[in-house]
Amino acid sequence: MTSDRVRKFFTLFFVLGFFFYLFGPLIIMALTAFNSSAFPRVTPWECFSVEWFSVLANDDKLVQGLRNSIFISLGVVALSVPLGLAGALMLSQVKDRVRPWYYTIVISPILVPGVVLGISTLLFWDRIGSMFGASRDSFFYNGFFLTIMGHATFISAYTMLIFISRLQRFDSVQEEAALDLGATHVQTFRKILLPFLKPAIGSAAVLAFLASFENYNTTVFTILSESTITTFLAAKVRHGINPSVSALAVSIVVITLLGAALHEMLKRRELKAAKESDMIAKGKLKEHSKNVKRGFFAQPALYMILAVFVSGIGTTYFAGTMGVGECKAQVKAEKYIRVQESIRKQKEKAMFRDAAKKALAPAPAAITKPEEDKSKRPGVSSSFGNIYSTENLGGLAGSKDEKSEEPKKEEKKDDAGFGGMFAPSNLKNQSGSE
Amino acid sequence: MQKYWHDYFVKNGKTLGIGLLLAVLFWIVILVIMPQLFMVDFSFRANVVDARQWGTDAHYYTLEHYKYMLYGSANASGEYNTVDLSVFGRTILAAIFVTLIDLILCYPVAYYLAHVAKGGWGRLMVLALIIPFWVNELLRAFSFKIMFGANGVINNFLIWLGILDQPYDFIFEGVALYAGLSYAYILLMIFPIYNAIESLDKNQIEAARDMGASTWKIHRRVVIPHAKPGISSGATMVFMLSLGALAAPQILGGPSSLWFTQIIYQAFNNAGNWARGSAYAIVLLVTSIIFVLIVMKVFKVKFGDIAR
Question: What ipTM goes with this model?
Answer without folding.
Answer: 0.85
